[in-house]
Write a structure and sequence with these properties.
Elements lengths: L4 H8 L5 H11 L7 H8 L3 H10 L5 H13 L4 H23 L2 H13 L2 E5 L3 H14 L4 E5 L2 H8 L6 E6 L6 H12 L4 E5 L5 H5 L2 E4 L16 H17 L1 H11 L5
Parallel strand pairs: 1-2, 1-3, 3-4, 4-5
């Protein structure tokens, strides 16, 4: 674990009380390590306040926080090398998350649906829409017609004109969009295959989707922009693309051969 204390503070700052800010200032000043009891007396807060402060950072307790803090105090690396190492660790954490949550059965289910449908609609906003553009580029070159719908108003309009000939893939990392949840419910109730890619297993969208593919989530300092919010979505799309290409080699080979004359 190699987390930057300053970034942890920035991530949680919106939840800080004045007491939390006092505690943060102590550690930002890189003051000596103390026991929780000594620290409480020195800052003028309760030990319970320090514990709650640590939990707001996404940590379990003061001991875990102290381990991170001591590691930064002891680090002999120049800041650039320390940040570089921390970023590598964050990448590793995201990869490990994905490895733990990706469901190969759902990957197979979605790629089978992609094989069966010529027209695919990608519903996603913000960074998810950008990831949808990557899906469109890759699968479009394999003969699929892919339309990326980037705002909820358009999704509401599209839902009534889509039929069972269409495949819908919804990209929503946090899975909290209420309007998208209503659209997904409408689509699946009419028999339209609608798959969700999200990091939120408890999402309302997941309750009505045909199936849900879980991907890694971004939490803590990763959400400050150190890691692009597209990454978990792109990693999930990589899995879909890899499996699709692996299981449709003959079809893809034929499609590529028809493109060959136009590339000369």
């Amino acid at each position: 674990m190699n987390k930057d204390i300053g970034l942890l503070f920035e991530y949680a700052r919106s939840k800080f009380t004045s007491t939390d800010s006092k505690i943060a200032e102590y550690f930002l000043a890189r003051k000596p390590v103390k026991t929780i009891e000594e620290l409480a007396v020195d800052i003028g807060v309760s030990t319970a306040s320090i514990t709650r402060f640590c939990q707001k950072l996404g940590l379990n307790n003061f001991k875990e926080f102290l381990f991170l803090y001591q590691g930064q105090l002891d680090s002999a690396n120049p800041p650039s090398k320390r940040e570089h190492s921390g970023l590598h660790q964050d990448y590793f954490d995201v990869l490990q998350q994905l490895d733990n949550c990706i469901d190969t059965d759902v990957v197979e289910l979605i790629t089978a649906a992609i094989s069966q449908h010529k027209i695919i609609h990608i519903f996603g906003t913000g960074f998810s829409a950008l990831a949808g553009g990557d899906f469109k580029f890759r699968f479009g070159r394999l003969g699929k017609f892919v339309e990326v719908v980037q705002d909820t108003n358009s999704m509401v309009m599209y839902q009534d004109i889509l039929t069972t000939e269409n495949l819908v893939i919804v990209l929503s990392l946090n899975g909290l969009n209420e309007d998208m949840a209503k659209v997904v419910k409408n689509l699946t109730s009419r028999g339209i295959s609608t798959f969700l890619i999200t990091s939120n297993a408890k999402s309302k969208l997941a309750k009505n989707a045909t199936a849900t593919l879980l991907t890694a989530s971004l939490h803590g300092e990763e959400r400050t922009g150190m890691i692009t919010a597209q990454l978990p979505m792109l990693m999930a799309i990589d899995h879909l693309y890899f499996h699709y290409v692996s299981t449709n080699r003959d079809t893809i080979k034929n499609w590529v051969s028809t493109e060959a004359p136009f590339g000369k």
